[in-house]
Amino acid sequence: MSSRLEFNTISRSYGDTEVLHQISLTVQPSRCVALLGASGSGKSTLLRIAAGLDEPSSGEVVVDGENLDGVPSEQRGVALVFQKPLLFPHLSVVDNVAFSARMAGQSRKVARDHAMAYLKLVKLADLAQRSSGRLSGGQEQRVALARALARNPRILLLDEPFSSLDSRLRDEMYSLMDDIRAELAPTIVLVTHDRREASVLADSIAVLDSGRILQHGPVAQLHYQPATLSVNRILGGLNAVPGNLADGVHHSALGRFPVQPGLRDGPAFLTVRQEAIRIIGPADGPATVTVTGIKSLGAHTLVHVASLGSRSSAETLTVEVPGDPGIRIGQHVGLQLVNTTGWAVTQ
Ligand code: ADP
Ligand code: MG
Fold first, then answer.
1. Gap from CA of 43 to ligand 2 centroid (Å)
2. With contact defined as beta carbons under 8 Å apart, do 78 and 153 qualify?
3. What are the pLDDT digits (tens) for 259-313?
4. Which of the listed CATH numbers 1.25.40.10, 2.60.40.420, 2.40.50.140, 3.40.190.290 matches domain 237-345?
5. Which atom of ligand 1 is nearest to the CA of 45?
6. CB-hemisphere CA count at 13 Å for 150?
């Protein structure tokens, strides 16, 4: 199950509209890459192309060095799990999972024994004989996963498979994915519009925006070192403070924050993450600011601050602090970066 998948400059047009533009992405064996993007960004189209359910207008899909151009879907060794599980409702759970082995000519006994091993993995062995029309949403999706894995695919493609489940069931599926990865080490492409899901499940995230990959990198890099304002926004970064860079320091009404090396002097946005800033005493840090808003998120609180006397809403910064920070609007506080230098982008 541990093959290497490459998309080489894949484009796809429908009529005059190009929905994928020169997508290049490599997924190393046994790694899980999340394709993160808004609805309509082209995620499903790219998965369908990998699965052989759609063809690129140009570019190629390569698995373990083999160009899959012209290879029919069922011969690709690529399994796709959809948001809707698409089980055969008249078949039992075990026969759904055994289906492709039966189609390949295995005896009923061999196919069912093989299927049972995968039902154990997804913790549904107890329900093997149940009609699959009588399962809950979470159980159906486990069967769909078992059915995909039982085909022993070279690549496992998941198209928003957990998005219709409630948050508790979703967390259960995340821990099941950990078990599957530990046991079988499949190469996975996970499509999602949920940045938390991408961060929990994947080793790396590729951000797709209007058919283009904006950045692909390890999960932490996408959060703390976004390439652009769009990536910062898509990963949930709340800060984009306009200012100027000079000698590796970002200057704005909020203060002077050292940022990463290698950027040219000139206009730039400070995108330091809300979790990477601490509120300290007013005279202690590189900046003294006023608290302009406080929003409780339950276990966390968002604190909005602005420069003293600021009138521009652009020059606010949001800080996420654990629990209740015990501060009030109008109070003067200092800011300090936690375990990091600042991060700035120019576009
Ligand atoms: P996502 O999965 O990210 O929501 P899709 O890959 O489904 O996005 O769609 C990307 C874009 O391609 C959308 O604008 C969609 O309307 C368009 N599209 C997808 N499939 C077709 C098709 N068969 N014909 C025409 N347009 C399509
Ligand atoms: Mg989709």
1. 6
2. yes
3. 999 999 999 999 999 999 999 998 777 778 999 999 999 999 999 999 876 665 5
4. 2.40.50.140
5. 6
6. 32
